[in-house]
Amino acid sequence: MTQLDADWAVGSQQEHFVDPLLDALVSLSRYYGMPASADSLTSGLPLVDGQLDVELFPRAAERAGLAARLARQNLSQIHNLLLPCVLLLKGRRCCILLKVDHEKGEAHILQPEVGDGEMILPIDELADSFTGNVFYVKKKYQFDQRSPEVLGDKNNTGSGERSCRSCRFTGMYWLLHC
Q1: C-alpha distance from residue 77 to each of 80, 84, 129 (Å)
Q2: Which of 94, 85, 121 is nearest to 105 (CA)?
């Protein structure tokens, strides 16, 4: 029997599941220079039918050092500054939107189920499959404990408290009065 005649050995020892959201997250972790394995992203998470679902996606993204936020938007409203993002498609599929060229009417996407090859397709064709739900995914900002020191902020003790009583922390930034 020649090599060409041999049957393909498709892992009977290992199950092969297609998990589009997880595959998209693995691709985005590589894109942002923080590669993570599928196992490291999902270990200990309560997967639904062995797959990452919409509710678990932000938790898995956080494990890769990424922040993910689900939004409902029309395809035409997604700005190029927010790319790449994960579009949720009909049939429990998804794709990573890399670029939208409205002048040419083209969208550049990655379909995680088939690997990291870029596809270019008409925006109208993508819009027909798009559910209107999108995950915006960006690298999480890492605050440095040395920030007050480096910035020369003498009012900040470094413990998250300020010496001025009228200054307060809003949860995202300081409102400074001193």
Answers
A1: 10, 14, 16
A2: 121
> To which H or E segment does residue 126 belong?
helix 123-129
Quote the pLDDT of residue 12.
47
For the segment 165-177, what is each residue's pLDDT rounded down to a tens digit?
566 665 556 666 5
Among candidates 21, 99, 95, 102, which has minimal Cα distance to 64?
21
Instruction: Indicate whether 95 pLDDT > 60.
Output: yes
* Cis amide bond preceding 58, omega within 30: no
Could you tell me what percent of the chain has a pLDDT over 70? Answer: 70
CA distance 66 to 71: 16
State how far the Cα of 58 lies from the Cα of 156, in Å rounded to an integer: 31
